[in-house]
Design goal:
The chain is of the alpha/beta class. The chain folds into two domains: 172 residues, Rossmann fold (3-Layer(aba) Sandwich), CATH 3.40.50; 106 residues, 2-Layer Sandwich (Pantoate--beta-alanine Ligase, Chain: A,domain 2), CATH 3.30.1300.10. Helix content is 36%, strand content 21%. It is built from eleven helices and twelve strands. The strands form three sheets. The protein has a six-stranded parallel β-sheet, sandwiched between helices. Strands 8-9-10-11 form a four-stranded antiparallel β-sheet. Strands 7-12 form a two-stranded parallel sheet. Helix 8 links the parallel strand 5 and strand 6. Helix 7 packs across helix 8. The radius of gyration is 19 Å and the shape is globular. The two termini are 28 Å apart.
Amino acid sequence: MRVITTVQEMVDERSRWAGSTKIGFVPTMGYLHEGHLTLVRQGRKESDKLLASIFVNPTQFGQHEDLGKYPRDLPHDLRMLETLGVDVAFVPTTEEVYPPGFVTYVDPTGPLTEDAEGKSRPGHFRGVATVVLKLFQIVRPDQAYFGQKDAQQVAVITRMVTDFNLPMELRILPTIRERDGLAMSSRNAYLDLQERAAATVLYRALEAGRRAFEAHPNEGLLAVTQAMTQAVLEEPRAQLEYAEVRDPNSFTRLEELHAPALLLIAVRVGPARLIDNFLLRPDGTWDIGIRITE
């Protein structure tokens, strides 16, 4: 596996792959867990050349967020990527991605970026869209891999790919969960044992919302959000930020129960702010993720 740290090296390497080669790309912020590795394995199956990036993007963190404390372990991450057969790990510095004088940002608007996570984290999706577009332009992948856990990020990037006519495919894979249902996240590392146990409230709340969705189709969305909220209120270590039901593509709030729909939740547990979701597909089936069994 080749480790590349500059944009010019990455552009030069990519140019050598021109032609019929199918290029897969897994963008990450590092501190890799099974959720990331699932994306890498799928990319390896479907690509002739596979790249993964590791870059903790400062522009998607707010002023009082955890940029300085965000977990990092680059040597471990590189070993994992090499073991899984990644051809190139792109590990740029902040100065490479945002050189002196950088002033041009992608700034998506509307409910897609202003509600839910966008309301809780103003400017977050401006940073996400900007860095992802930059990475796409540098790597020029045929397909890029993301996890459903970050559902609003997925919707923003999907919209951006469409709006800018990017010649690539997005591959969105299910959320990977621990055996107790907690969605895998690098921020889970912030939790002590008691907080880790309490964090399963996100999964329990989503399950409560799903049951309410199916049991009370004529009672509107209030029954769903109340069920999710009540589940969080019963966990003393958890602080609810939002529990909502939205359209998975536009992120407008739904007015009535129907598919497709996205049950969304954001909760603070100790030092960690955690998000999760269940997706009700257009055909009426649920994507609630995949639990690991070992």
